[in-house]
Write a structure and sequence with these properties.
Helix 6 packs across helix 7 and helix 30 packs across helix 31. The protein has an 8-stranded mixed β-sheet, with helices on both faces. It has a 6-stranded parallel β-sheet with strand order 5-2-9-10-1-11, sandwiched between helices. Strands 24, 25, 26, 27, 28 and 29 form a 6-stranded mixed β-sheet that branches. 44% of the residues lie in helices and 16% in strands. With 903 residues, it is α/β, with parallel strands linked by helices. It starts with a strand and ends with a helix. Among the domains are: 192 residues, Rossmann fold (3-Layer(aba) Sandwich), CATH 3.40.50.300; 82 residues; 220 residues, P-loop containing nucleotide triphosphate hydrolases (Rossmann fold, 3-Layer(aba) Sandwich); 132 residues, PCRA, domain 4 (Orthogonal Bundle), CATH 1.10.486.10. It is built from 31 helices and 29 strands.
Length: 903
């Protein structure tokens, strides 16, 4: 394996593009090169960059320092044709592509589907609860072992499964018990996934299984000759094992990345995978030219990486080669300390104000929209928002975390929960929300009563009626419509819930509707369950705000981005070490095996200290990522309480840039220490700024259209005459399974459209093989086919008598679309044909009763479509096959039906 280190800003993507060009020029077809990176966005960008480079080579004969040999032109022409279909994907995308090639060898369905992580967790939790229930039986093998106290450890271990192919217990009976229970739950979870479902972690495990099957590996190597992996510092152990196994089998693998930027341990990334490649692979010369940073920032970053590497804080000297700047820009570095004998939160208020003042001053040369403020934690954001509002600096808060725990989202969750079961916590939350608007004491009085609902009805009748109205409406609505109702219906004295929210909260609520619209839950219970599961997603963030202004975001969100000016705020914040129920440690001498230690077992403290050291190391790498986002100007600010630097402030102290340094100011460097002074309150006499005048259309509401934008006359008929029966959903397609009557109608119409005969065995065999027959057992099929044959015989008996035959022009299954009002009506005419000068429009019915009025509107739409498109006036007829009866419909009746439905 060939390995290259590429520090921030050194043109890593450009180097990959050049490598593509070299490989193509040497005779490797683009279709045999797989490019793999960490995100879809990065993969799409790489595809675009490769395509542009190929075009430039064909036009100019070169791209950057690459010069194409004249004889290689046909190779580049071929590559340009292949670029849209080339393998440029995420790691999981490449794994899935390999698995689909060899799926039967691994007992997989080639058309397997991917589960999201949250769905995988939900399935695993179900299996865990099932095991706990079954283990209550004294005869169960795990009786007395699958207890409630293991819930958190079992789920935590499941979340860490990308770190190891197998878990082993460290010393201690509790660890053995945990692993035995976990393995039982995981086996049930795998059985539930079967051959058609894979979550990301199970995809990785299957990919590893592929590498141990010689026939499967051979098949992959026939398709891929070279594998280029970007952002290799972000891979997890299972992914690293997969790439190493392919390389060991003969695939040419080249990886590029930067150990200094390995910051995704919370996604199970492990920098040890990159370091193993450095130890065992062929190390290529590092990329040393920074195309991003100004000269001042290059010097600072070199000094930063050297300081960190010398102390072993996050990376080694070998992983931190110095870089040289290419840009002539001199740039600027500012370091601001705020120190005092008060609490850190008080210091942070002044620190944010100092930063706001500096950004305001620098806005003379750099627009606010070209600035970003990076924070380690969203806990720091409130100080910035307060200072920026005070300084009148426009800002945009980029995506944060904890979206599904936002107040507006939880309000809707509890409103749904209270509608189903109006008691307990959800009722209390609903009463305190904009829906109830009760004071805390009033809520307490309601909940403490012997019958809270009766008390609510007696003391707060309006609130009770509102709850009753919500309960009544939600029982009759699909879940997505119920969510819309809660958000948009003016339930509170003419105001909707939406009207009580700030703009940011409104964006989040709208995003909730967009999230559920493509795949709406089947019931309110399912919607509540999904909201509860999503609330546990640590990386689910707010909707990013739009607009102009300083961008505020975390360092993790800033990875891969850059700005002319970047400020890193609150360097004095400590590294958090949240408690977890268990710790892992790689098993000595065993690849892809992790030992597990629960609290109270002998290895727990040792494993905990090891994990704490790893988190500290990643913290220093996170600081490097933050500092390297700036192109021209970097501002660092830190608070120092009682002279003790914490967090990243320790790094500045180690670099000799601490708070005790002398103030220094020149064109490219500012170092300033500010003594704590409480901020003066905003002047009470200052008149508030006049708001914008509300436009006249602000309160306007769009009235709902009578029909959807695209609708079918037959669906309108069902809505009006035949309420939809309760049908079971097809788990694969999400469509309703056909009943017997629908199957018969489908087959008869299809056979008539094909001019198939009831006495032709081949025709009947083809009908029986149609997909609509799959849900029925052999005896049901036999009965359906007998009825279909009778109806076809009835149709054939009408031909040449009630139904003219032969025909000069004949159009079976004739599709039409007719715009009427705000709806396009789309349908299929069973038969449109001409005999002599007369045209006929016919609709065949397998109904058990003759009721032509049911179809007046449907056939009126078909008649109007034929009139408008072809200028014809056909005779419109209903053909009732069971009765051998042809009913002619007068145009006046049809026109009346159209007017009634479309006033």
């Amino acid at each position: 394996m060939k390995v290259r280190i590429a520090s921030a800003g050194t043109g890593k993507t450009a180097s990959l593009v050049l490598r593509y060009l070299e490989l193509i020029a040497s005779g490797t077809p683009l279709r045999r090169i797989a490019g793999v990176t960490f995100t879809r966005k990065a993969a799409d960008e790489l595809r675009v960059r490769v395509g542009q480079a190929l075009e430039e080579v064909l036009e100019k004969g070169r791209h950057l320092e690459f010069v194409a040999p004249e004889e290689s032109r046909p190779l580049f022409q071929e590559a340009l044709r292949e670029v849209s279909g080339a393998t440029l994907s995420t790691i999981h995308g490449f794994m899935a592509q390999c698995l689909r090639l060899v799926a039967p060898m691994l007992a997989l369905d080639p058309d397997f589907s991917m589960l999201g992580d949250w769905e995988a967790v939900a399935l695993f939790e179900e299996e865990w609860h099932t095991l706990r229930y079954l283990a209550l039986d004294p005869s169960h093998l795990l009786h007395g072992m699958a207890t409630d106290e293991l819930t958190e450890p079992v789920l935590h271990l499941f979340a860490k499964r990308s770190l190891a192919e197998a878990f082993e217990p460290a010393d201690g009976e509790e660890n053995q018990r945990l692993l035995r229970v976990y393995q039982a739950v995981y086996a049930a979870y795998e059985a539930r996934l079967g051959a058609r479902l894979l979550s990301p972690s199970e995809l990785e495990r299957k990919a590893l299984e592929l590498t141990r099957n010689p026939r499967a590996v051979k098949r992959v190597l026939e398709r891929v000759q070279v594998l280029l992996v970007d952002e290799y510092q972000d891979v997890n152990p299972l992914q690293g094992g997969f790439f190493a196994a392919l390389e060991g089998a003969g695939l040419h693998v080249e990886v590029v990345g930067d150990p200094k930027q390995s910051i995704y341990a919370f996604r199970q990334a492990d920098v040890a995978v990159f370091r193993q490649a450095l130890r065992e692979g062929e190390v290529l010369p590092p990329l040393k030219r920074s195309y991003r940073h100004s000269q001042t920032l290059v010097r600072f970053l070199n000094r930063l990486t050297e300081t960190l590497a010398q102390r072993g804080w996050g990376f080694s000297l070998e992983e931190a080669p110095p870089v040289e700047g290419v840009r002539p820009s001199r740039g600027r570095l500012e370091i601001h300390w705020v120190e005092g004998e008060v609490a850190l939160d008080d210091l942070r208020k002044q620190e944010a104000w100092v930063l706001a003042q500096r950004l305001s001053a620098l806005s003379q040369t750099t627009r606010y929209s070209e600035m970003a403020v990076l924070v380690r934690s969203y806990s720091s954001v409130r100080f910035l928002e307060e200072a920026f509002a005070r300084a009148e600096i426009p800002y945009v808060l980029q995506q944060g975390r904890g979206y599904y725990e936002r107040q507006e989202v939880r309000d809707l969750y509890h409103a749904l929960r209270a509608a189903l079961d109006p008691r307990g916590l959800s009722l209390a939350a609903w009463l305190r929300s904009p829906f109830g608007q009760l004071e805390l004491a009033q809520v307490e009085a309601v909940l403490r009563s012997s019958d809270p609902l009766k008390t609510l009805e007696r003391d707060f009748p309006e609130v009770y009626q509102r709850l009753h109205q919500i309960q009544t409406r939600l029982r009759t609505m699909p879940p997505l419509e119920a969510l819309k109702f809660l958000i948009r219906e003016p339930l509170m004295a003419g105001r909707a819930y939406h009207d009580f929210l700030e703009p940011r909260a409104r964006e989040n609520v709208d995003a909730l509707l967009f999230y559920f619209a493509p795949r709406p839950p089947q019931s309110l219970e399912a919607l509540l369950e999904r909201l509860e599961l999503l609330s546990r997603q640590a990386d689910a963030g707010d909707v990013p705000q739009s607009g102009e202004g300083v961008q505020i975001l975390t360092v993790h969100r800033a990875k891969g981005l850059e700005w002319p000016l970047v400020a890193v705020f609150d360097l004095g914040r400590r590294e958090p070490h949240p408690s977890v129920p268990l710790y892992l440690c790689p098993a000595e001498g065993m690849a892809l095996v992790q030992q597990v230690a629960l609290a109270g077992t002998p290895a727990f403290e040792r494993f905990k200290q090891r994990q704490k050291a790893l988190e500290e190391e990643e913290s220093y790498r996170l600081f490097y990522v933050a500092a390297s986002r700036a192109r021209d100007t970097l501002i660092l600010s830190a608070s120092l309480s009682r002279g003790q630097p914490e967090g990243w402030a320790r790094v500045l102290e180690a670099m000799g840039l601490g708070a005790d340094g002398q103030p220094f100011d020149r064109s490219d460097y500012l170092h300033q220490t500010w003594r704590y002074r409480p901020l003066a309150p905003a002047s009470p006499g200052q008149a508030p700024k006049a708001g914008l005048e509300a436009p006249p259309w602000l309160a306007a509401r769009f009235a709902p259209a009578p029909f959807p934008p695209l609708f079918s006359p037959s669906a309108f008929k069902r809505q009006e005459w035949e309420p939809e029966p309760l049908l079971l959903p097809d788990p694969e397609e999400g469509e309703a399974l056909p009943g017997r009557a629908r199957a018969i109608g489908t087959l008869v119409h299809y056979a008539i459209g094909q001019n198939w005969q009831a006495d032709n065995p081949a025709h009947l065999a083809n009908l029986e093989a149609q997909e609509v027959m799959f849900p029925f057992d052999p005896s049901e099929r036999e009965g359906i086919m007998a009825e279909v044959r009778e109806l076809l015989l009835a149709y054939q008996s009408l031909l040449g008598h009630a139904l003219p035959w032969p025909r000069e022009e004949d159009y079976p299954e004739f599709a039409v679309a007719l715009p009427l009002g705000s709806t396009v009506w789309q349908g299929v005419i069973d038969r449109l044909y001409r005999v002599g000068a007369q045209w006929y429009l016919e609709d065949y019915k397998t109904d058990h009763e003759v009721k032509p009025e049911r179809y007046h509107f449907q056939l009126a739409v078909y008649l109007a479509a034929v009139r408008e498109a072809w200028g014809l006036e056909p005779q419109v007829r209903l053909v009732y096959l069971r009765f051998g009866q042809v009913v002619r419909l007068e145009p006046a009746l049809l026109q009346a039906a159209l007017r009634e439905a479309m006033p």
